Amino acid sequence: MPSSLEKTRKHIAKKRNGEVNALHAKSRDSLRLHKAGVRDQRLEKLAAARSKKEQPIVDRVNFFQESLAEKDNQSLDIETIQSFIKRFIHQYDEEYDGLKKARRPGRPATAREDLLKLKIAALEKEYQTGFVIPNVMSAEHAKNLGKWEGSWAYLTTLPWIRVSSSGQVRSAEFPSKGIN
Fold first, then answer.
1. Residue 9 to residue 37: CA distance in whole angstroms
2. What is the pLDDT of residue 114?
3. Which parts of this chain are annotated as the region Disordered (predicted)?
C-alpha cells in the first residue's frame, strides 16, 4: 500500500515535470510533503501500538493451535484444556528460574525477571477467574482453529470460552481490548 508521502511526492513531481528536489523551504509543496511524512509516521506509530496490544492474543491462540495439532485437531475435554492452560501459564518458569539462579545473592532482580514474575502472576490470576481461549470443545470449532493462518480478522470469527481453574466453562466475547 503506497504511503501518503509517496502519493504526495508523485503528485508534486508530476506538477513540476519530475523535479521534487528543488523546493523552497516554506513553499506549499514542501509543507505538503512534510505534512504527509508526519501523517505516515503517526500511522506507523499507531499500527505498532495496536500490534503490540494484539500480540498476547495472537501468541495465546498460536499456542493453543499448536497444542491442538498435537491432538490431531480433535475436540478436547476440560481436563486436557486445563493441562494446556497450565502449560501455557508456566512456559516462562524455566527462564525465570534461570534468571533467578544467575543473579548473585543480595542483588536486586533484573527487569526481565520482574517482567516474567508479573506475567506469570497475571496469567495465574486470570486462570482463577477465567482464562479466555478459543473454543476447542467441539470438533467443528477445533477444526476451525486448526485452519487459522495467523490473521487477526479470522480470530473474530472463532467462538471463545472462559475456563476457570475450578473447571467452569462459560462462553466469552472476543478479547478485542487485549489480554492481561
1. 10
2. 94
3. 1-20
